[in-house]
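Sample intake — Nickel transport system permease protein nikC
Collected from: Mannheimia haemolytica
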Amino acid sequence: MWVEFFRVIRSISSTMANSSEIQASRLMGMGWFYSFKRHLLPRLLPMIATLSAFSLGNAILALATLGFVSVGLRPPTAELGLMMTELFPYYYEAPLIFLQPVVAVFLMVLSLQLLSRKIK
């Protein structure tokens, strides 16, 4: 999962390293930390936040999927995919009970996506 972060950060850093903004700040005698803080970090933080939200959403979906197919954590541990598996036989009697972990996963992933848009 770190490969996406590396590629995005490397791409932005390499284009910004050759920009006129950084060259002008270097010519004025500013150090590398000032250039990083003033020019590079404001461009990197929104991308890192967006990628983090997407990666966290993918991790939540992957854990719920593995738990649903009984590959994840074992039954004493509470996990959303395992809850779906255990509540699936009761779907016809009480469908709202089964939908609670589904809605929880949906709301977590949706909130992360909305948060990434807000940060962007």
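Post-analysis note: The chain is about 80% helix and 0% strand.
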